[in-house]
Structure formats: structure tokens, C-alpha cells
Specification:
The protein has about 300 residues and is an alpha/beta fold. Helix content is about 35%, strand content about 10%. The chain contains 10 helices and 7 strands. A 7-stranded mixed β-sheet has the order 2-1-3-4-5-6-7, sandwiched between helices. β1, α5 and β2 form a beta-alpha-beta unit. The termini are far apart.
């Protein structure tokens, strides 16, 4: 008879301890099976070596300057450019200068090197977009290179009234982050794991504003299948021949960016292949089907 109360008190204490413990947030399971669209492999060694052509794209941009200068001047609306992983505003300087020459008011992201969404980075980006939109009293176009494109898309979803359009350059917003050759570096500098299926599902949802993905099948860092917007009336995919680290300097990409920024969001039309464009561009408005080789 003397044991029962003691057992009861131990049980009550155990229950109180359980109730007092903070509830832990479920952690992503790194061994969870991948979804079919996450089975794309990262670019192979040959494509990685082809990234060495980036200096030639820089030279091509200078050679194409007379052609680019003939493009119609924009309406002066504000544009914010987000750099890629491990890069800073220096990497987007020439792109922003090009935008200014085309009549736009181009801004850097002002967050130093992009080492992932570390503490305070996303909040600063949100405030930056909001401040620029209020300063100009109109929505802002958001351009993101690689990881910077993820920021652009997410902020556009959070601030639909402040986002005029989104343009991404080789950004991996579909599929698993391991389908890039930069995921280990991302984990190293950001301190965050890439194994998060809930976050992957969130990132792939497109913004409500017009959204353009400029990608290359010869990208040596990001598998091109990871840069394909799902079909919709306000999203599109433009294929160019470019390297990943040179895409923001590639004259074909610059031309497509200028063409997209000139679109009126209220009468937005997808990029077409009229005239000489068909020789330099390809367009796709549907997700690619995975082949057995790509599923390995």
C-alpha cells in the first residue's frame, strides 16, 4: 500500500516534466526519399570545365555593346539585382551599369557577400525592396543571379504590391539543392543543411507577378532542369547559351533582360522568337520529363 502513492507521485512528476519541455520543431529527414523532380543529377565534369568560358562572355559583352546600345530605352523604373552564392555587388556591377544605360534605376542588394540567408539577411532584403518601392512610388523589378534569384522570388511572393516582375539567371528553384555543384559550399558558408523538403516545395511556387527564368543547358553549376518555371500565364523560360558564372555578362542574357523589363505588367507577353531571335534563343513553357539517365 505504501508503494502506490510513491509510484503515482513519480508518474505525476514525469507528466509535469513532459509538459514543461519545449516542443521541438520537426527536423527534415536527410534520408527521406526524393521526389521524381528531385532526381536530376548535378552537371558533370565537362560542363564544369566549360565554366572557364566566362571571360569570353565578358569579352563578347564588350563586342556586342554597339548592338546592345540600339535597344529601346526603358521607362526608368527601379530594379534591384541580387548576386549569387559567394558573390557580392561587385559581380553585378556591369549588369547594373547596363541597366542604367538602358534607362533604368538599378540598385545593388547592399548585403555584402551572399553567404546564404543568414540571420538578418532576408529581413534586410525585405526592407530594401520596400524602401525602394516607397521612394519611387512604384513596384520594383527584381533580378536574381543563381541563389539571388531565390531571394527575388520569395520577396516577390511576400510583397506582391512591391514587385513588378522577377527575372532569374540560372537559379535553382525546382528540384533538390544537390542537383547543383554548389550545395556543399552553401552548407559550409551558410551553416544550413539543404535537406529540407518543405522548403524545397515552398521555393518552387512562382510569384504572382510576371516571372522569367533565363537558363542554360550548358550551365556547369546548376542542372538546367532546376531552373524551369511551371507552366502559367505569367511565367516563362528562356534558354541561352551561357556559363553559370558568366550569365550576368552574356550579351544574349542582357538582351533578354532588357526586353523583359520593357514589358508592361498589365499587358505582359511571353518572350517570342520573331525574326533573328529564333537563331539565338529557345523557349520552353513546360517542365521537362526526366529520362532514366537524368534520374541516376
Amino acid at each position: 500500500m505504501t508503494v502506490a502513492p510513491k509510484v503515482q507521485r513519480k508518474s505525476n512528476a514525469s507528466q509535469q516534466k513532459t509538459r514543461s519541455e519545449p516542443r521541438q520543431r520537426p527536423q527534415p529527414n536527410p534520408f527521406a526519399p526524393l521526389q521524381p523532380d528531385e532526381l536530376v543529377a548535378a552537371p558533370g565534369p565537362l560542363l564544369m570545365m566549360m565554366e572557364a568560358r566566362a571571360p569570353w562572355e565578358w569579352a563578347a559583352m564588350w563586342a556586342a555593346t554597339p548592338w546592345l546600345n540600339r535597344l529601346p530605352v526603358g521607362d526608368g523604373h527601379p530594379v534591384i539585382v541580387f548576386p549569387g552564392l559567394g558573390a557580392s555587388d561587385t559581380s553585378t556591377l556591369m549588369l547594373r551599369n547596363f541597366l542604367r544605360q538602358r534607362g533604368y534605376t538599378a540598385y545593388p542588394w547592399l548585403q555584402g557577400f551572399n553567404f546564404g540567408p543568414r540571420q538578418g539577411v532576408l529581413d534586410a532584403c525585405r526592407s530594401h525592396v520596400r524602401d525602394i518601392a516607397n521612394r519611387h512610388n512604384e513596384p520594383v523589378s527584381l533580378i536574381g543571379w543563381s541563389l539571388g534569384g531565390i531571394y527575388a522570388r520569395e520577396i516577390a511572393k511576400e510583397q506582391p504590391d512591391n514587385a513588378r516582375c522577377v527575372i532569374t539567371l540560372g537559379s535553382p528553384f525546382v528540384g533538390h539543392p544537390r542537383a547543383t555543384n554548389a550545395w556543399r559550399f552553401y552548407e559550409l558558408v551558410s551553416g544550413q543543411a539543404v535537406h529540407d523538403h518543405a522548403l524545397t516545395a515552398q521555393v518552387r511556387v512562382p510569384p504572382g507577378c510576371p516571372t522569367t527564368s533565363i537558363f542554360s543547358k550548358t550551365d556547369g553549376v546548376v542542372a538546367w532542369q532546376c531552373s524551369i518555371n511551371e507552366p502559367s500565364a505569367s511565367s516563362e523560360n528562356i534558354e541561352v547559351q551561357a556559363s553559370h558564372i558568366g550569365m550576368g555578362l552574356n550579351p544574349l542574357a542582357l538582351y533578354a533582360i532588357a526586353d523583359r523589363l520593357r514589358q508592361d505588367p498589365q499587358r505582359w507577353k511571353k518572350f517570342d522568337l520573331q525574326g533573328a531571335r529564333k537563331w539565338f534563343y529557345k523557349i520552353g513553357h513546360a517542365l521537362p520529363e526526366l529520362t532514366p539517365r537524368e534520374q541516376r
